Amino acid sequence: MPQATPRSSLPGARPSVFLLAGAFVTGMFLFAHGGCGGDECQDAADCREDNGTPAEGKEWVCDDKRCEQHPVLQPPPDAGTPDAGTPDSGTPDAGAPDAGRPDAGTPDSGPTTVSVQVLAFNDFHGQLEEPASQILAGVAPDGGPVRVNAGGVTYFARHIAALRATNPNTVVVAAGDLIGASPLVSALFHDEPTIEAMNLIGLDLVAVGNHEFDEGSTELLRMQSGGCHPVDGCLDGDGFPGAKFKFLAANVATGVDRTLFPRYDVREFEGVKVAFIGMTLENTPEAVIPTGVAGLTFKDEVQTVNALVPELRQQGIEAIIVVVHQGGNPAPGSLVNECKGAGADGLISGAIVGIAKGLNDAVDVIVSGHTHQAYNCVIDGKVVTSASSMGRLVTDIDLTLSKATGDVVGARANNVIVTRDVQEVGAVKELVTKYQGLVEQRANRVIGWVAQTLRSQTDSAGQSTLGFVVADSQLEATKPANLGGAQVAFMNSGGLRADIGQGEVTYGEAFTTQPFGNSLVTVTLTGAQIEQLLEGQWQPSGATIMLLPSAGFTYAFSASAPIGNRVDPASIRINGVPVSLTAEYRVTANNYLASGGDGVEVLPEGTNRLGGAVDSDAMEAYLKAHSSAASPLPAPALNRVTALP
């Protein structure tokens, strides 16, 4: 396979139409969208970009580095649909994927290559409305960052449509977490609005991510097949058709040689087949409550793909794209088409790097996600991309395939900002407006007041005002003896998805802060286990998962001490009384943490487990009890955790 070149590294690069629009608004050139300078070309994609749409009945061909228009050879009448064909389910018992479908074959004359476009995104998280966060689009003349507003599904739909129009051979794919951890407008309806929006947009394939399992595999299967929710029904008053696109789950096993969803999907373009393998991260069970993944086995990503390569090649498939919900981490301040980081050779770090290097060289492209980052890389000869999160970017991947061999002979990628200077798609806007109207009455209900903005951002000791209030609400909800008898509660900072602004607090705001619908769990731990829980915040992998304690719980740690010995046992106190390592205490956490989420190993060992209220209900009850318009809840002091040298 030839070395793939991301567009951002090409000489003589030009901005795309959308990036030019964004640059016009900001008054500066943002970043590159590649092509070939002068009359030279590398492949048909260059010709299409440099010269526009060819004449009717013709297509661009790059012949000896020069663009020429050749007649389009029509496939035989029984050759199937040239832009997709009949996709293969990829399940072990699906039979031969080409059975009963004639192959168009390789023409005797005409173009020798096929141009295929893959439009990719990841970690959408039901973000139908415009997200508040911006995208770093460039660097100003004074060296400062240039940030632009991006995202919103109505604009996202327009960008997808415009990019799709540049190539009839287009596949739209998503690398997991399409749903789950969603804003109220989608989550209140069990993410049905997001599935319906993606049906309108024309999503083709989605690899499952960890958040697809938030409500369990049965609910995820309903997302594919449709039907009303078994408990809540169809809250929008009509039916739910399910996804018109395909979920893929190559490494999610339900039994011996059986997977929850198809392992891959095969698309055919002008006689050339392309395989899309979809999967989630192997560690999904660590990020999901046990009931969400009950009965499922999550297999190694590299082993899963490499075992499929011989099977795909037996079907005559040489072009392989992996869509995986696992990712990497670029350096802070990186632009969306860069690959800079703390990894080898100054490139990105993270799990996706090892995956890319471990995958068979037959893999041409890896569409990744999970880390909510933007990058555009070539790792071990494979194009590796990620499109940030919440629909703020679309990755435009152009492939050139050899008709003779089926190989990818050219591959380029470009992360395109989903700017809001384009016309919204009317049908998608109508869908969003419908659900906004349905949710408005409940979302705008005032449940409390706060004197200052409660922020999720942590200080150097891992403390945040929002985290403390949430932990306090969970302690209060489980403190009565019949509800758990809790003495301390811990909240994970990763479970806080938005700040709560000063003044009135609506149900919608509170829900957006904790969109997971986790229930509270109270367990018994010894003092020694509590110390072990605190020590576990600094994990051997280098990750730091700080826990936010409820009022009355205090301790000190030394960041310079060795991992496993950072907390001073004598400093751990509840209401000023030192914790005895041999005594037992009642401890509350959400069911994600209590089941071992975020790699927390101690809480699942707790005894006398007792379930409790939903976290958002506990927050509502706490705000109602402790705030009013005349006496809003003050932000708590950040004095529960002491960071020592």
Automatic annotation (TrEMBL):
Q: Does the keyword Cell wall biogenesis/degradation apply?
A: no
Q: Where is this region: Disordered?
A: 69-113
- A cellular component annotation (GO) from this entry: outer membrane-bounded periplasmic space
Q: Does the keyword DNA damage apply?
A: no
Molecular function terms, GO-annotated: 5'-nucleotidase activity; nucleotide binding; UDP-sugar diphosphatase activity
Domain Calcineurin-like phosphoesterase: residue ranges: 118-373
Domain 5'-Nucleotidase C-terminal spans what residues?
450-603
Per the record, where are the segments of Low complexity compositional bias? 90-108
What's in the keyword line of the UniProt record?
A: Hydrolase, Nucleotide-binding, Signal
Q: Which domain of life is it from?
A: Bacteria
Q: Which GO terms describe its biological process?
A: nucleotide catabolic process
Q: What family name appears in the similarity comment? A: Belongs to the 5'-nucleotidase family.
PANTHER family the UniProt entry points to: 5'-NUCLEOTIDASE, 5'-NUCLEOTIDASE-RELATED
- Protein name according to UniProt: Bifunctional metallophosphatase/5'-nucleotidase
What lineage is this protein's organism placed in?
Answer: Bacteria, Pseudomonadati, Myxococcota, Myxococcia, Myxococcales
